[in-house]
Amino acid sequence: MVIKTDELPAAAPADSAREHGSQAGGKGRPGAAELPSVMLLNGDCPESLEKEGAAEPPRENGLDEAEPGDETTGQEVIVIQDTGFSVKILAPGIEPFSLQVSPQEMVQEIHQVLMDREDTCHRTCFSLHLDGNMLDHFSELRSVEGLQEGSVLRVVEEPYTVREARIHVRHVRDLLKSLDPSDAFNGVDCNSLSFLSVFTDGDLGDSGKRKKGLEMDPIDCTPPEYILPGSRERPLCPLQPQNRDWKPLQCLKVLTMSGWNPPPGNRKMHGDLMYLFVITAEDRQVSITASTRGFYLNQSTAYHFNPKPASPRFLSHSLVELLNQISPTFKKNFAVLQKKRVQRHPFERIATPFQVYSWTAPQAEHAMDCVRAEDAYTSRLGYEEHIPGQTRDWNEELQTTRELPRKNLPERLLRERAIFKVHSDFTAAATRGAMAVIDGNVMAINPSEETKMQMFIWNNIFFSLGFDVRDHYKDFGGDVAAYVAPTNDLNGVRTYNVVDVEGLYTLGTVVVDYRGYRVTAQSIIPGILERDQEQSVIYGSIDFGKTVVSHPRYLELLERTSRPLKILRHRVLNDRDEEVELCSSVECKGIIGNDGRHYILDLLRTFPPDLNFLPVPGEELPEECARAGFPRAHRHKLCCLRQELVDAFVEHRYLLFMKLAALQLMQQKASQLETSSSLENGGPSSMESKPEDTTGPEAGSEEESSSASGLAKVKELAETIAADDGTDPRSREVIRNACRAVGSISSTAFDIRFNPDIFSPGVRFPESCQDEVRDQKQLLKDAAAFLLSCQIPSLVKDCTEHAVLPMDGATLAEVMRQRGINMRYLGKVLELVLRSPARQQLDHVYKIGIGELITRSAKHIFKTYLQGVELSGLSAAISHFLNCFLSSYPNPVAHLPADELVSKKRSKRRKNRPPGAADNTAWAVMTPQELWRNICQEAKNYFDFSLECETVDQAVETYGLQKITLLREISLKTGIQVLLKEYSFDSRHKPAFTEEDVLNIFPVVKHVNPKASDAFHFFQSGQAKVQQGFLKEGCELINEALNLFNNVYGAMHVETCACLRLLARLHYIMGDYAEALSNQQKAVLMSERVMGIEHPNTIQEYMHLALYCFASSQLSTALSLLYRARYLMLLVFGEDHPEMALLDNNIGLVLHGVMEYDLSLRFLENALAVSTKYHGPKALKVALSHHLVARVYESKAEFRSALQQEKEGYTIYKTQLGEDHEKTKESSEYLKCLTQQAVALQRTMNEIYRNGSSANIPPLKFTAPSMASVLEQLNVINGILFIPLSQKDLENLKAEVARRHQLQEASRNRDKAEEPMATEPEPEPEPSGGPDLGSELQAAKDPSPSVQG
């Protein structure tokens, strides 16, 4: 619910000259926060934040070019009042300039700014002096004496060391490559792609310079053929359009380390640090000496060493200045390059926190690059540059950051920022190490054992492979269990990290899937390698429950986690039949490291087992499970329920508990006699059956609807019960009964916990606990039934109502996981979709589900297929697999690597090859028929779903899939990168892929995502405030949240992206289009960089940006953004998706606005067809669609068609809303108006027929739509509806949010109004007599499907 005011002052420009300003100066602008702000919660709810995604903090300023290891104390504390000041910088050779700084920045950050500025970027080795005193790199500015407004800082060149010289060369190389996207395509150094600037021509922020569109310049609006509705072709090349800036200006041909390095002893004593070899663009070859004083030319050649200076004898402190001297081309091109570099948006160049890989890339030229070559061989194998001469002790770093104090906000920010930074660094190092292990680059610590059993240590990280070593998992499913255990363990680590108990430590854990192998990377507990595991474990069991030990300190620490994690403290028997008390599963081991910290590891069974996939002899599952064909034997016995499911189940039981208690209290009040007798007769058994009945599918869905109102009543009840508690024995009795009924472990309060060891093979429980064990077994069965009877149906219901809109496999998986449904239930979800009465409206979910099922089954097969391929056959094997999977060519033949080179003698098979070096060629005999047979079998075995297809073409035909979409899904899941070109999948004469088309294979990485908790709370409370109507406060809170997110995560992160999107929306509603554009542009760039250029979220962001561009009258930009969104959507899913209706309505309206009527109709009519399919022919959305089509026909003066369309709409309004509703009246007015125009036209025609050319014709009024009317319709379809309110009522509204009922009275006299007020248009716009706030807040809480954010 929203208030918009036109008279507000525009906010201060988003980021002024200094985009990288500190938070205090930049983001938390008081100016912006003054605006009474508002927001529509279009699905920008916390859900969008739960996304697995992540990023590491390269700070707000886009300047993290230097190694970001040593900035753990940058802009920690956010004190918005602590205003910045400006200092003057004097650097050699340029005019002095002033720089805005803030007191909590560090001196080092000024260094970063200078290394990024166009005129000082070539300096790296300098210090800053104030009044002749050198400033310390790591001190905060506020601690520098005498530093104030107007102080002058001198840049003083310092002598080089070998390290500084290397850093300088690296920095120069980075400047030369700053526009080159190859690092992003290759997935290195946290670079990733962004294409927004290609579509906006960089004219978003500076629209003042060339405002396009308003003068109605002829805009070319025709989209490429493949974007038009109904087009069948899905090209791949437009996914990564060629950016003009990428054809980089060549400054040098070669810059590399010379072969004469390192300098001999006597030259060292002359100050030589290293030698460089350069070939200039003019083809001049020169040799350069880096000395302590700077760079100069020497007289060496490729074969002759002569270190004497050459002429011109020019010594320069910076390599760039030297090159400027000797190469005119370098001088010219380098200047142009830097100009372009600083014009780019900082978000296009800041590093992301975690690497994002691209699944396509164009053919790139491989150029010489000294820094890359050096990185590959020397420094990076285990040494990080910014820690001189030592490896990082990851475990120490990870644990020390957790120990940082967290009493107040600044401390918590510092701590969260440090945790996040270390985690993202650790993830990057672990990924690099895992790839090195599989590529055979690391020596095993047990080299004599066979490959599968080898373990590795690299860079202080321990690596193990996902195979069942020493029959550890024999009872659980062998290798299959060993493969899933690491991800279960990672989920456990993630959970314990969130609970964050002081004194309890987990290992840094990253799981990497690469080339068909699963590698677990863990930080190393100090001392663990020196002693035997048996001695170290003082809590838990190393043999799955035969020998079990416990420890009082561990029990005390784990007890603190038991409530949030719902884990029951329980007793088990060990091999000597002694009772041992535990507060976790038996596999969870406690080890005290040499550093005295209490570590827990092997958290693979943190959550209770999933009985639907764990058949236990002699145990019956509830009837709902049996009906669905459970229990089914799974491949391994480590299936557990997701944490989301446990939470949902407990919440569900809590509601039930309250209802039961309420019922009994009411019965008591009615007649105490009856109550007591019924309780005695019924006893717990009848109560036991009660919760089960209520979890039937029907009850489940009915409960969903009632739960919102039910919760409020329940809360009241809870209070009354609590109040009675001590005094009234009867209410105590009530609570005891209710507790027993819902399976609570306590009889005086609601408390449900699970024993994770129930049904664990090999674990025995003491006799005395038999009752407890029986109850726990029942609870697990109920939870398994709850998943089937409540969670899956509620997911399908949400999809039917379009409350969630999955667009590809990843978003579907995310929607399932949020509801606690594991992916192994995908087959069950699809069965329910098929049986659903609204099957038509679930078509998109069904297609995505089938695609996901096929690609996941193919991924399982691909994994084992790849393990049998040696490195030299990798691209041949992958292209062969893709041909069998996607190409219509009936018998593709694999090229064996032996084709290229013939080896003289075949060496005997060695026992200890690196893991990825099998040399069999079994993979070459796979055929498409065999692969698809296996896929169908895998789908049946794993997901219990029968696919009806024997080839890829049948699958495409039967299920309406797209091959390009399947290629995207399989590539993302397996890490394949293919060449960007058009593949002829359907050719029956040649295979679609050759081995040249497979460019790379990347790791798929799973890791922990540390959260910024304070920022997240600010974000949530900001959303809540806006929903309650406290708009100004809401906007301030969200601005503050953005600040805190930046502080913890740095500039790039998924959550920051959601924050920016929301701010943009608020500013838009308040009429501040420039600010909306600036924020939304950042959101789009960030989404492209952090989530991927064609991620569904990016598509959404493009649509929002297009709307704000249109409002700022940048029409051609708005169109090209919408066309981009449509192209991405066609690639990711296809045309037949409910979101496509919204997109096409947007495109159609903009085209209508620029008077491209025929084109406009193609899009609007497609939108009408899609809306009718997904919302049913009687939906209000469809009525709106009819009206939009009618308007275009009216503009074309085709009144008959217009009347026909508007009548359809009128009928819907009349049946749905009744005669008297404002919408129905509007529609009937419009019909009258159309009829009059039709009659007038007919008169004119008749006049012409009668009198021929001499007819006296009154001029016809054809209406070209006004921009305002188009914008109004755009707002309506995008879920922003303005309802007029006067200024006085605005005040009232704010005051009376609490007393809503008075609004009803006030709203009568509210028609004459100047100020619009926006609300959600769902379920349907209220009459402008003033909305009932209640229903409105409801609308804000469940966003309309059309505007899922």
From TrEMBL:
Basic and acidic residues: compositionally biased ranges: 48-62, 1301-1315
UniProt keywords, alphabetically: Cytoplasm, Repeat, RNA-binding, TPR repeat
Subcellular locations according to the entry: Cytoplasm; Cytoplasmic granule
GO biological process, alphabetically ordered: intracellular distribution of mitochondria; mitochondrion organization
GO molecular function, one term: mRNA binding
Bias kind Polar residues: ranges: 674-688
A cellular-component GO term for this protein: cytoplasm
Ranges where the Clu domain occurs: 372-614
Gene3D superfamilies: Hypothetical protein (hspc210), Tetratricopeptide repeat domain
Region forming the signal peptide: none
Span list, region Disordered: 1-72, 674-711, 1301-1349
SUPFAM superfamilies: Hypothetical protein c14orf129, hspc210 (SSF103107), TPR-like (SSF48452)
InterPro entries: CLU-central (IPR033646), CLU_dom (IPR025697), CLU_N (IPR028275), CLU_prot (IPR027523), GSKIP_dom_sf (IPR023231), TPR-like_helical_dom_sf (IPR011990)
CDD domains: CLU-central
Chain segments annotated as transmembrane: none
Function: mRNA-binding protein involved in proper cytoplasmic distribution of mitochondria. Specifically binds mRNAs of nuclear-encoded mitochondrial proteins in the cytoplasm and regulates transport or translation of these transcripts close to mitochondria, playing a role in mitochondrial biogenesis.
Family, as annotated: Belongs to the CLU family.
PANTHER family recorded: CLUSTERED MITOCHONDRIA PROTEIN HOMOLOG, EUKARYOTIC TRANSLATION INITIATION FACTOR 3 SUBUNIT EIF-3
Name of the protein described by the UniProt record: Clustered mitochondria protein homolog
Source organism (scientific name): Sapajus apella
UniProt lineage: Eukaryota, Metazoa, Chordata, Craniata, Vertebrata
